[in-house]
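May I ask for whichever protein you like with its backbone structure tokens?
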Amino acid sequence: MASAMLSPPFGSDISRSDLSSLMATVGSYDPSMVLPGILLPNNSGRLAYFALRSFHVESSFRSDYNIHCPEEVLRWWESAVDSIYESEKEIIAREAHGPTPLMAAENAPSVPFGAARMEGSSDTPIRRRYRCSPDVDPLVLTLRHVVSEHGLSRKYFDDALSARHADARIKHYATFDEMVEITSSSCKAVLSAILMCNGVGEENDAVREAVSEISKAHGLAMSLRTSVVLAGSKLQKIVLPRDLCQKRGVRSPRYLLSALADGDETCRQAMAGVVSDIAAEARKSLARGRALREDILSFGDDEESKRTIRCLMGPAVVTGRFLDRLEVVGCDLTNKNLRKSDYKTHARCTAEMLGAW
């Protein structure tokens, strides 16, 4: 039903199945992020929304392969961005010199960019994807179309990948400010690109400030949401910043790894306190972003204002609901119910989004 509302732009080579895969990728991260894209007023803006959101999901460290090989994944995405911004002459010249090592598998069939890990197999669709040339990847091809149609600057992709690189290199954040800077940068880049593709610039102070505040809240929430996965991976990343840990009496974030394994209740309570501090700051940013709604609605024409609100409401609502669940479980990042989102939660998100304007 939803995919039927999202049709390929006239004259493009993008199939309906590609669009369905984009929506599935976004929905695999959080189903509540799908509705804002569907509610955008035209197919061109919807396609840009789902393609850019898919890029944000797939360039993160959410999958097994992305977690264990982050630098390889990010290098692949850098090559993909190079491919997206190549001119026709550059493509012809490159192909005339024969395939590069990265393109050695260019004749291999592409795989769905929302594919999940195959149980019991050392080879996965995700792993095979990064052995293929970006030139044949359906998400990259869709992004190329979006960039061409909207004249989207490469800066948005570079800023997002730069933040991912910084995140991959850091074992733990030294300060809360560092955590905010790194986690919000990729969110801000993608959200700004989505707005630009929907005809909304950031000339208005209220729009610019709302993007900044909502990206800050969304970045912090995403970092907390993936924290246990990262702590159990080869990255051994503890998302809690050192200064907040020390404030709560924890010697260092890395101490939490062994403390969680040993069931240290005192340390667990200290960790919950640190998480509570981070969540409180995320809520403040979210509240400041939402408070700008009336200023945004008073800027420009009615349709432009609505497009702005629809682009912003996805991460705002999803962040708010995650922070609500975090509060219910006592800021315990190890609680199994924290990352579960039932149909009632999605219904509440839907109602909040539909009432956003």
Summary: Residues 302-328 form the longest helix (27 residues). Residues 48 and 146 are 6 Å apart (CA to CA).
